[in-house]
Design goal:
Blueprint lengths: L3 E12 L2 E7 L2 E3 L14 H8 L7 E6 L2 E2 L5
Antiparallel strand pairs: 1-2, 1-3, 1-4, 4-5
Length: 73
């Protein structure tokens, strides 16, 4: 069984407090490859920036392992 490397809980992403995608619940296990596809302007880059901590989520949480991303230095 693979260990969960990253997961989100009710994550909403966007800019300046306005959500472009809401209630994202995902789980990525260690060693998995994930493909993110979609039309232009649907939030793919915003999701990746939020998951990496470059921008703050509008709401919800991102976890690396079992630790909230906001609790990491």
């Amino acid at each position: 069984m693979s260990k969960i490397a990253l997961h989100t809980h009710n994550l909403s992403i966007g800019h300046k407090g306005k959500a472009v995608v809401e209630n994202v619940n995902l789980e990525a296990k260690q060693g998995e490859f994930i493909c993110l596809t979609g039309r232009n302007g649907t939030g793919k880059s915003t999701l990746l920036k939020t998951l990496s901590g470059l921008i703050e989520p509008v709401s919800g949480d991102v976890f690396i392992g079992n630790v909230k991303l906001t609790d990491l230095s």
